[in-house]
Amino acid sequence: KAGVTQTPRYLIKTRGQQVTLSCSPISGHRSVSWYQQTPGQGLQFLFEYFSETQRNKGNFPGRFSGRQFSNSRSEMNVSTLELGDSALYLCASSSPPPQGPSSFNEQFFGPGTRLTVL
Amino acid sequence: GDSVTQMEGPVTLSEEAFLTINCTYTATGYPSLFWYVQYPGEGLQLLLKATKADDKGSNKGFEATYRKETTSFHLEKGSVQVSDSAVYFCALQILTGGGNKLTFGTGTQLKVEL
Predict the structure, then answer these.
(1) β-strand B19-21 against B44-50: which pairing, if any?
(2) Residues of A in Cβ contact (< 8 Å) with B89
(3) How far is the C-alpha of A25 from the C-alpha of A46, rounded, in Å?
(4) What is the pLDDT of residues A44-97, one digit of tens each?
(5) Apex CA B110: angle with CA B107 and CA B114, to 5°?
(6) Which of A56, A109, A113, A114 to mutate to test the interface with B (most CBs of B within 10 A)?
(7) pLDDT per residue over B58-104, tens digit each?
(8) Cis peptide leading into A97, omega within 30 of 0?
(9) A30 sits in which H/E element
(10) Which of B42, B52, B89 sits opposite A43 (nearest CB)?
(11) Mutating which of A7, A31, A43 best tests the B interface, going by the most B Cβ atoms within 10 A?
(12) Measured between beta carbons, which residues in chain A are less than 8 angstroms from residue B102?
């Protein structure tokens, strides 16, 4: 089974531009989550999409947005880029959990998109 | 809110040394606990998990026990190898209410030398 894929792997933009990142989940997975990883703030949750609906949202400004398509592929968009948006953006996919008191959603991470804002 | 605190790195060990990376958490609900590992240039991989108190997660020689009384989930390995060099993240997830939000610690870089 193919893993989570993210495109592009590397991206260089300038301040004020906008950017769109793409994530293709593992086949059959309906949940896609996005995380931002920076040396200063570590790994921070951006948002999660499940069946084309945003199910969870982190504490990021409205410049960060996302969407999910009917095939579960997801995109995130950052408008009006700032220098501080330079980061590794990771997406993770998971399938609905099995039922039971110890059920949990294992999340499978992609390799990330390295965004550099100049 | 929920948070995870783990020891600062980098941690540098000689091969075959014993490893402990401390992790403590605060959570508003009953969390599941995880350790993820990130190798250079790669995404995160789930290393081990524990979903309830006193559970022990284990994988590839690594172990961690869910201690509710001390709100801790320390990672241990009896004998590290050079190939274990990576960044290790402790994380929690609250399952009730749905959603897949993981809250991560800041990560601990491990360097293992010959």
Answers:
(1) unpaired
(2) 43
(3) 17
(4) 999 999 889 998 899 999 999 999 999 999 999 999 999 999 999 999 998 866
(5) 175
(6) A109
(7) 999 999 999 999 999 999 999 999 999 999 999 998 865 557 789 99
(8) no
(9) none
(10) B89
(11) A43
(12) 33, 35, 43, 45, 92, 107
Residue A6 burial class via C-beta count within 10 angstroms: exposed 0-12, middle 13-18, buried 19 and up: buried
| Burial of A80 per CB tally in 10 Å (0-12, 13-18, 19+) | exposed
- CB contact under 8 Å between B46 and A35, yes or no, is no
pLDDT in tens, B31-60: 999 999 999 888 899 999 998 899 999 999
pLDDT mean over A26-48:
92
The 3-class secondary structure across B3-30, one letter per residue, is EEEECCCCEEEECCCCEEECEEEECCCC
Chain B: nearest CA to A50, how far in angstroms? Answer: 9
Distance from CA of B51 to the nearest CA of A (A): 6
A-chain residues near B42 (CB < 8 A): 111
Rg, chain B, Cα only? 14
Cβ of A42 within 8 Å of Cβ of B46? The answer is: no
Q: How far is CA A95 from CA A29, A35, B53, B100, in A?
A: 4, 18, 24, 10
Strand-pair category, B23-26 with B3-6: antiparallel
